[in-house]
Amino acid sequence: MPPGSRKVAITGVALADCGRVDDTTPYALHAQAARRALADAGLDRSLVDGLASAGTGTLAPVEIAEYLGLRPTWVDSTSVGGSTWEVMAAHAADAIAAGHANAVLLVYGSTARADIRAGRRTGTLSFGARGPLQFEVPYGHTLIAKYAMAARRHMIEHGTTIEQLAQIAVQARANAALNPEAMFRDPITVDDVLSGPMIADPFTKLHCCIRSDGGAAVLLAAEEYVRDCRTAPVWVLGTGEYVSHVSMSEWPDFTVSPAAVSGRLAFERAGVRPEEIELAQIYDAFTYMTLVTLEDLGFCAKGEGGAFVEKGRLKVEGGDLPVNTDGGGLSAQHPGMRGLFLLVEAVRQLRGEAGARQVRRPDGSAPGLAVASGTGGWFCSSGTVVLGR
């Protein structure tokens, strides 16, 4: 088969234990997720010749490979925040298509919540104070403040309201209510969101993602392995990646996320249009991330995100573009770099395996096209993956 001509499928997906997981380690969560993803695919781990991991230890993919008992001939340790896993999926798909690997495992595990409770770490107010960040951090420009500034800019320029942003949290919770694995499932209202404690103006607590423990794994494989799998393949149709800025002063427009570029590339390479997508998994560390990413992926025009989200469009039940069908980082789980969870949920939906939260076409069948779009840093990077069955 000529180099670059192999089709690539996601053949296995799984979550490790998520939510409140006090008595384990990040390495154990990696192993748990990896075993479950391989079992989901029905493939033996001896076939895995590629590994991608980030966020753990000093030499992430080397340490995780050793812990899992793997000796990969292709590795990736790209670390660009929450978009890491969509970017890694793009790299893995390219490597498999080119014949540099046959089966690549993407795996992640984190005890972010448990570590804080045990005093092993503190909350992440910034990513450090070296390099370009030295000009922002001393003035109290925290991670969440960057997102809050961007949201306020959108509100000023486009008339977006805090009630519209709150609707994103409300609809994420409605989806989480259908997911037995979600950490928070009790319904919330717009008033609940608005009346919560202020974290960084205009964000109150429920505008912000939860903090959990957890892990996930995704196995990508060349098309010739699909016949040996126990699950139906979900094909990688197109991918895109983009980096924008790290200094807020170098961000040309606070109302445009890097998904505007990564999404365009992914859709072009997949040969599909945004209006053909049947569900979206979008990184949602904060409500504004969902809104601006919807705009930049082309689901609505710039400045129309507020009106787009306020009528229940994002809900599994009754929504015309279900978004974050598991409840997202706002309600389901968020152990750190959550981008891998977006891919797991997209695949489960396309397979028709999402249980009570399953998105269905009018004829009752599972959807055929989905997009997963991860965001890293404070809109510093983006990776977008278009998937189809």
UniProtKB/TrEMBL annotation:
Pfam families registered for this protein in UniProt: Thiolase_C_1
SUPFAM superfamilies recorded: Thiolase-like (SSF53901)
Source taxon at top rank: Bacteria
Domain named Thiolase C-terminal: residues: 240-389
Classification via CDD domains: SCP-x_thiolase
Name of this chain's protein: Acetyl-CoA acetyltransferase
Organism, scientific name: Streptomyces doebereineriae
